[in-house]
Amino acid sequence: MIDVQRLRVLRQVAECGSFNRAAAALGLTPSAVSQHIAALERTVGTPVVTRSTRGAALTEAGRIMVAAAESVAAELAHARRQVDLLGSGRPRLTVATFTSGGRFLLPGALAALTAACPDAMLHVREAEPEDALRQVRQGAVQLALAYCFDGPLPGGRAGVEWIPLLDDPLRIVLPAGHRLADRTALDLGELASEPWVLGCLRTEEYLRRYAARAGFAPQVRGTTTDYFFACSLVAAGLGVGLVPSIALAQEMPPGVCAVPVAEPEPVRRIGIAVIGRRRDDPLLAALTGALRDRAAAVGR
Fold first, then answer.
1. Record's CDD domains (predicted)?
2. What pLDDT was estimated at residue 299?
3. What is the pLDDT of residues 29-80, one digit of tens each?
4. Which residues have a Cβ under 8 Å from the Cβ of 86 and sit 6 or more positions away?
């Protein structure tokens, strides 16, 4: 039988990329971590980790076992919530969200949920998509409001289901007096000589890929973790920006304007991640429905 503690250790090694860092995170010695992994490999009959001077990497068998570890962690977390419910009689729901989605989509949905389920105990935590999806897989949160750019949609791993909500086009943010401010749309290549100010590391990665297709490498003069701050720097003349529409919907600093990007328009895809077999949970289903309603209202 596979030991759950050894699965937990393997999962930590996968997250940390080394035995030493995993040991520190778990409060164990590196030797103890190595012994747990060796015992797990004896149990399954094949290596789960490859070791090198650069750290530790999962084998294919190791990836399968980590997916199983995440499922086990999620099931144990669910069982704990069910036990807590027996004692308190109040259903609980923990949600992870990225900042701009949390500001624009979540409050209205939570207001509708608390009106419909006043006894529910709700918890919200901020997390970037990769971390939020990991927390869903491990059962730390029951729903993640997340996003992705190009590439495959999230979900599929450890039973995670991705429910699309809306497409969020990115806009070019310019100082109000910029020579291109009156345009109805802009090709990214027209801004090849401009310095850039960005409000998110993931947006910077996407901009660099998108700019490469347009034949230039962007000169990034400012990086922040807040779109409003980034727009304020654009207003001050530090550069131009690339900002998702919903981050501009509630509040935009004076002195800037937003212009659509010409086709092919860069889009951030926003959705919900849940464990598929839990999506019929009444509280989870109610919040999913409220988020869908909110997203549909935004799209009109």
1. PBP2_LTTR_like_6
2. 61
3. 988 898 989 988 888 899 999 988 888 889 999 988 888 887 777 777 767 7
4. none
Domains and CATH numbers, the chain: 4-67 (1.10.10.10), 73-166+269-299 (3.40.190.10), 167-266 (3.40.190.10)
Write down the pLDDT at residue 213. 86
What is the pTM (predicted TM-score) of this model?
A: 0.74
Give the C-alpha distances (Å, rounded to integers) separating 32 from 19, 28, 195. 9, 6, 50
Give residue-wise pLDDT tens across range 167-186: 999 999 999 999 999 999 99
Query: Are 134 and 146 in contact, with CB atoms under 8 Å apart?
Result: no
Residue 75: which region, alpha, beta or left (left: phi > 0; alpha: psi -120 to 50)? alpha
pLDDT at position 89: 64
Within 10 Å of residue 182's Cβ, how many Cβ atoms? 9
